Amino acid sequence: MRRRAAALSSEYRILLVDDEPGVIKSLEVLLKHLGYYFKGVTDPLKAIEMVRNERYDMIVLDYIMQPLHGDKVVEKIREFNEDIYILLLTGHKDLAPPLETIKKLAIQGYCEKSDKFDQLILLIESGIKSISQIRTIKRFQIGLNRILQTVPKIYQLQSIDNILEEILKGIMPLVNSEDAFILVDNVITGNKRVIFKGIGVYQTDLEDFFSKLNPVLMEQTGFARVAKQNVLLDNGIILPLIDGTQKSMGVIYVESRDLKEGAKLLEIFASQAASALSNAFLHSLVNIKNEELNRTYDELKIRYIDTIEVLRLTVDAKDVYTSGHSDRVAYLAVKIGEQFDLSQSDLEILKLGGFFHDIGKIGTTDDILLKAGALSSVEYQEIKKHPLKGAHILSAVSMFKEVVPLVRYHHERIDGKGYPDGLKGEQIPFLARILSVADAYDAMTSERQYRSKLDAREAKKQLIKGRGVQFDAEVVDRFLDIVEEIEINQAEIAVTLDFG
After folding, report:
1. Do 180 and 199 meet the contact criterion of CB atoms below 8 Å apart?
2. What distance in Å separates the CA atoms of residue 455 and residue 435, rounded to the nearest whole number?
3. Model's pTM, two decimal places?
4. Which domains does the chain have, with CATH numbers?
5. DSSP 98
6. Helical packing angle, 344-356 and 430-444, nearest 10°
7. What is the pLDDT of residues 298-348, one digit of tens each?
8. Would you say 401 and 247 are in contact if contact means Cβ atoms under 8 Å apart?
9. How far apart are CA 277 and CA 341, in angstroms?
């Protein structure tokens, strides 16, 4: 307990006033050893001026001193400082000031002097905890006042850009932040439309904005949206914006290393921000042209795809054996989808699913990803995380919400023995079942560092073996009907994956 108190105490300043230098020296050694910031003086008049001109959180002072007794010192200090925590030392309990005086001067405690300082140290530690709690309460009061001052602004009739800026300006001071951004769905034009606003390092155009998002931040942003949970990072926090129907409408990211109690204030403010945005959209109080929204959305989509493409190529570049794998999977998945007469919209989703299905491997270390031999159980568990990580990366913005299930479930099996969720049969989305077959076939017919590729005949045997067990039986049948006719032409793949 004392170690925890000592770690906390370095933030606080203690002043000892005693006319016996020996007492000061003894306490100085002890308190500094415990990690406390400490100063000691023998002159009570000097102590008064020190408290007046410097910041101290606690003062420990003797009662019987010259030229002023301790109660008179406290009386003068209370004239200009009502907050400092005061402990009074007495040579004997009979010499302690009357209880009425202690109450009047708001003296928090006193103890008798002794050769041992155990009781005094306990009182100091208790006092530091009390000071910490008082600071927390005051910080909440200040934070809540800021929220109360800001909330009317974000409910005012104004443009969505101004509302988002007011939200960020209101939330950042709560945790001494300078950098933050907000991504929110525009529910007027459909929840595929995403609006962005940044402040500080994130106050930039979309191209530069996405370049500032590392894979971990992208993944955790998506997780916050999907799970509707705050995500605490080493240098910031992601807060989901939840509307009145408990739907996730976006996220706020605030960069700060000074979260502590402020995280709760952020949560309170994020709730108000979501309510204000829902209200603005619901009543069509957004003063912005639809064509401008569409232009912003199109730019956002292009830049986010560009960012994920860089990550995807980074994954491919790690391993020469898997280079081009996602391109081929996208191509094969679309070919299978065509056999089911899927709509152009579904074929587009299949294409994106193939293109991005392994994006979650960006966070997998090279020693696992490039391992030539069999993976250990721990390494295999790490690899199995990539569908979920990829799904979270794509979930960061809602425009890819139809693609997320493909990325998340492409390693599920019909018999329920797949991952990450152990879905079985028709619990697995149909497009994910298509992607699973395309992924497996290309993986089997490609060279890997840990095995040689299978020829087309053997790969087909493996698909048949897994028919109705690992893979959807009808998807396997449709694929086998066309596989011999498919000539994977790199130029055709390039055209197929042109997002222009």
Report:
1. yes
2. 20
3. 0.63
4. 2-135 (3.40.50.2300), 155-282 (3.30.450.40), 290-496 (1.10.3210.10)
5. P
6. 50
7. 666 666 676 677 667 666 666 555 567 888 899 999 999 999 999 999 999
8. no
9. 40
